[in-house]
Amino acid sequence: MENIFYLRLKALTHESGNSFNQIERELGYTRNALANYKNGGVPSGIRLMELANYFKVLPDYLIGKVPFENVESIENTFVSLTNKQKIEMYLLCQKWILSRIKED
């Protein structure tokens, strides 16, 4: 079964118009280094950072901890909201923050 890291790596590679082999050459990786993640392998911290920098995404996105690629995508989403939706988002965030403060 393909893991979230591999699925996102494959999608970003496709979006870039490059192949795994081309990216491996550019980053100085051994041949098939990226394809080897298909079976559930996890990259080292250094490799995770290198790949995140290469694709200009958050490392947390690559490993499935966040659903968005980068901060700009969050900002773009917020900008596209109506004023009413922005107010609802603000109130939701405020409520969430207050609940966290009460827990501490």
From TrEMBL:
Xref: InterPro entries: Cro/C1-type_HTH, Lambda_DNA-bd_dom_sf
Transmembrane segments: none
Gene Ontology MF: a single term: DNA binding
Domain HTH cro/C1-type: 25-62
Top-rank taxon: Bacteria
Record protein name field: Transcriptional regulator
Lineage of the species this protein comes from: Bacteria, Bacillati, Bacillota, Bacilli, Lactobacillales
